[in-house]
């Protein structure tokens, strides 16, 4: 059948295929005299054979014959037809349309084809059935080589003649072995001579792979330059950039490098060309599975890389606030330190929420988490490529400033302090006020980043000692009052019915507007150990403060 494997059209010789001088060879082909007479006539001289000749071909010819009426229905066939094509024997009958036999045949030959591909393959097969004349040579799946010719009948309809030409390729020869090998490895091969004339094409490969894509065989009998040659395959390939480049090429000879093109079927083909004994050999290989595996590996690698990035992100991110954690903070601090060594500016600041323990104790840890998340959001508003914001742990946050003058750093820290001091945090129906203490230190070329971080921590303690809600920058400990070197603080903790505001606290203890009840550093540490630290901003404790000099 012409749908068995799609093949390359061979040029029709100008002389009859068989001459009277070849009569002695007819027995080798198994062709009866009447069949030989038909085959000796060129297509130009025989549009349709006489009825008697047709009957003789059906009954006695050494060729397979099948006839169709003007509606493309089967009207008759001979025994050799079902011998050549045993797969059709179970369904062919008089009145069966060519399209029905073609569809059944295609389903056997191409079981993996999609319904869309089958529809297109059937359409292309019908086009060839109605328009091709031949002669066409192709190889069957069982290895036999057949030659097909098609003739129109005067009253309408067509008949087709196949003859077995396998014996022309002598069994056991290198040529026969090569044909079998090419069929087994499933590669496409075309060979053009030095003049550009087609010498060989592995038609079986092209028919199996492109049956549903092309209506007619590409005219590849002549190859002049690359552009004109590859344009003949436009029905097969997607019009991607690489194929367009081939179609525009004026170069002659083989491709200078292998190319991989995607067919409209979705499959990929690698085409490599080279000279071999003055002949241009083109080798086509279906590499769809290779590319699919490569893409799967690339996808897996991409997903693994994304997962690794996600794991790194998780390992360097605080799970509650989404800020960088101490690990990433250390990396950013090191980079900022290196920038300072290279001549840039840098600083580090530590932020600590004042009396945060009181929030957890009175409102619960869920409320404390809300405050931490909102505090992180306020700090993160100043994050940029040159500013990293991190949560170091608990209620302590940090910022690394790279390439920024100290005045700008202090301005940002003061803006943040003011935002905390003037803002409120909503915990259900409650509105809480939380202030922040900030310690700032420069990054210096002459000291390591760990020393600078310690300086910032010292500055933070200075801010706490000075009454909190302030920014300290590598300065000495302030005197709280003139003539008083120390403050002894005694706490009697109780819950007030009426919470006191910071202003009320200052008024209660007659403190200046810029001061709060404070501890000395040593006494503060002792109070922490005794769990007596309380938040004067919430007003739900009262203080009994007695200041006395160490001289007393």
User: For the record, what CATH class of the largest domain applies?
Assistant: Alpha Beta
Number of strands: 19
How far the N terminus sits from the C terminus, by CA atoms, comes to 121 Å
In the sheet with the most strands, the strands line up as 2-1-5-4-3
Strand composition percent: 15-25%
Largest sheet: 5 strands, antiparallel
- Structural class assignment: alpha+beta
Number of contiguous helices: 18
Question: What are the defining features of this structure?
Answer:
Alpha-Beta Plaits, 38% helix, 5-stranded antiparallel beta sheet, 4 domains, disordered C terminus, alpha+beta, disordered N terminus, Beta-Lactamase, 552 residues
Describe the structure.
By secondary structure, this protein is α+β, with helices and mostly antiparallel strands. It contains 18 helices and 19 strands. The protein has helices spanning 26-29, 33-40, 51-60, 79-84, 98-109, 115-131, 174-185, 203-210, 226-230, 241-248, 288-315, 326-341, 356-363, 365-380, 406-422, 449-465, 502-508, 521-529, and strands spanning 64-68, 74-77, 136-139, 145-152, 158-164, 188-192, 198-201, 259-262, 268-276, 279-286, 346-353, 387-393, 396-402, 425-427, 430-432, 436-442, 471-473, 488-492, 542-546. A 5-stranded antiparallel β-sheet has the order 2-1-5-4-3. The chain has a 5-stranded antiparallel β-sheet with strand order 7-6-10-9-8. The chain has a 5-stranded mixed β-sheet with strand order 12-13-11-16-17, with helices on both faces. Strand 1 (64-68) and strand 2 form a beta hairpin. Helix 5 packs across helix 6. The model is unreliable at 1-49, 475-500, 515-521 and 532-552 (pLDDT under 50).
